[in-house]
Design goal:
Blueprint: H1 3-9, E1 14-18, E2 30-35, H2 40-52, E3 57-60, E4 66-68, E5 73-79, E6 87-90, E7 93-97, H3 102-111, E8 114-115, H4 127-133, E9 136-137, E10 140-141, H5 142-145, E11 146-153, E12 161-166, E13 186-193, E14 195-196, H6 199-216, H7 235-241, E15 248-249, E16 252-254, E17 262-264, H8 270-288, E18 297-299
Parallel strand pairs: 2-5, 3-5, 4-18
Antiparallel strand pairs: 1-2, 6-7, 7-13, 8-14, 9-10, 11-12, 11-13, 15-16, 16-17
Helix pairs in contact: 3-6
The chain binds flavin-adenine dinucleotide.
Flavin-adenine dinucleotide binds near residues 59, 125, 129, 130 and 135.
């Protein structure tokens, strides 16, 4: 699509914007057009226009679980982190916009003496990304506290509709949801049902979780866990058992601290990341007979 057409359709979008600036892995080629909408209405309007003109749409939250390929993403990329960021707390109910960062939501709810989202302190992405992934940590998971999500479905009647989807309809599973089958659906906000707790105790729990993270995970750009858990085993354990800790391709390395984190030493490419993912899968399969499935979502063109 011609840059001028994209500019006319989405005047506030940045054109040819390098996405490595927006991903936790610091990897990713350019988005033809990157839009950070200031409201849910602006996001919906942009998606409507894109569909009218046959322009593909990609949604990013915080970019903490994505590998954007080196050729970048064609069409319109909508990034919600930091743009849709309102939180409302009333009684035990919490409503958070899709772009709210999960650790901030953990802090905000704990400070109000509401228990249930402390686990979110370990997950650097957004509310929308956490619904998509059913993100979880420290034994807690999004599906345990989420009551509903408002989802814009462009395939609905009248050029799309916002549907309030109940927890039971979101198809939650280990690191997945029904949204994986509908990549064009967009989570706009989510409602959580929490329980009353002691604010000081909840804050202390968050502090303990944070400390665990600081000692247990590498301090370099990554996408967090590269692979999902294979059955009851741990990807970090099998990758280490296959002798891959410290294996390096280009600037990408299987972290010597935690083998399921593939760290970028600076200037790493998606090609290197894919090669390392491939090598890990092959080696673990050959040596241990275990199949590893990526948790990280892969977008764009090589
Ligand atoms: C250091 C580190 C530690 C991590 N630790 C954990 C952990 O403990 N537990 C865990 O579960 N994850 C962890 N992650 C992975 C990641 O933070 C989670 O998967 C998170 O939920 C992704 O959210 P995001 O907003 O960054 O989504 P993105 O990475 O931007 O996107 C991920 C997927 O969600 C989709 N998506 C994002 N927002 C929306 C939306 N509003 N509507 C529809 N689809 C959307 C995207 O299209 C994409 O397919 C970690 C990552 C890092 C870098």
């Amino acid at each position: 699509m011609h840059a001028r057409t994209l500019h006319e359709l989405f005047p506030s979008a940045k054109l040819d914007e390098p996405l490595r600036r927006y991903t936790a892995w610091k990897i990713g080629g350019p988005a033809d057009a990157l839009l950070e909408p200031r409201s849910a209405e602006e996001a919906i309007e942009a998606v409507r226009k894109a569909h009218e003109h046959g322009i593909p749409v990609t949604v990013l939250g915080g970019g903490t679980n994505v590998l954007v390929l080196d050729g970048g993403i064609r069409g319109l990329t909508i990034r919600l982190a930091r743009s849709l960021v309102n939180v409302e707390i009333e009684g035990n109910g919490v409503v958070a916009d899709a772009g709210v960062l999960y650790p901030s939501l953990a802090n905000a709810t704990a400070a109000k003496g509401l228990e249930g989202l402390e686990f979110a302190t370990g997950i650097p992405g957004t509310v929308g990304g956490a619904v998509y992934m059913n993100a979880g940590a420290y034994g807690g998971e999004t599906r345990e506290v989420l009551e509903w999500a408002d989802v814009y479905r462009p395939d609905g009647p009248d050029g799309g509709e916002v549907v309030r989807m109940a927890n039971a309809d979101l198809g939650f599973r280990y690191r997945g949801s029904v949204l994986h089958e509908h990549p064009d659906w967009i989570v706009l906000r989510a409602g959580y049902g929490l329980v009353p707790g002691d604010a000081e105790e909840l804050k202390a729990r968050i502090k303990t979780f944070r400390k665990q993270r600081m000692t247990g995970s590498p301090n370099k750009p990554s996408c967090g866990s590269t692979f999902k858990r294979p059955g009851n085993d741990y990807p970090g354990r099998v990758i280490e058992a296959a002798g891959l800790k410290g294996t390096r391709i280009g600037q990408l390395e299987v972290s010597p601290d935690h083998a399921n984190y593939f760290v970028n030493h600076g200037g790493g490419t998606a090609q290197d990341a894919l090669a390392l993912i491939d090598l890990a899968q092959q080696t673990v399969r050959e040596k241990l007979g275990v199949d590893l499935e990526p948790e990280v979502r892969i977008f764009g063109e090589p």
